[in-house]
Amino acid sequence: MDVFQFDGSFLSLVLTLPRSSCEGLTRRHLLRMEAIVETESPLEIFARLNVRHGPNTEQIVRELPLDDGKVMVEFDLAYTKLNEKRVEAMWVDLIFEGPQMNQVTIRDMTFSRNPRAEL
Residue 52 to residues 27, 37, 59, 86, 87: CA-CA distances in angstroms? Predict the structure, then answer.
């Protein structure tokens, strides 16, 4: 993605997750997003997980650590008020703060879901 002239404060890219990713989703799950991210100049990027359950939407925001090209963030659903019986849809907003005069390349984006270990 190349951004030149930009008058806004942020740019958002929406990634809709497949409906099958919602099946059996509970508050015991951790969702992980991994990707390779390259930027032309330093930039703040946030990932916001949105989970719609009935009329409500739970949101969890994580800043992507751009120290290394390989990026990984986890979303812990245990700290949400998720109604597990009504999960309808999930999507991730990638939010680029001040993206003007920058080039961002995202490769090999992978999402996974794992149950929390019970100790």
Answer: 13, 27, 9, 8, 6
Q: Which two tokens mark 10?
A: 């942020």
Domain boundaries defined on the chain: 2-111
pLDDT of 9 strictly over 80: no
The per-residue pLDDT for range 95-113, each reduced to its tens digit, is: 988 777 888 889 999 999 9
- HSE of 79 in the Cβ direction (CA atoms, 13 Å)? 8
Q: What is the CATH number of domain 2-111?
A: 2.60.120
Cα within 13 Å of Cα(49), Cβ side:
23
d(CA 44, CA 96): 6
Average pLDDT over residues 15-39: 94
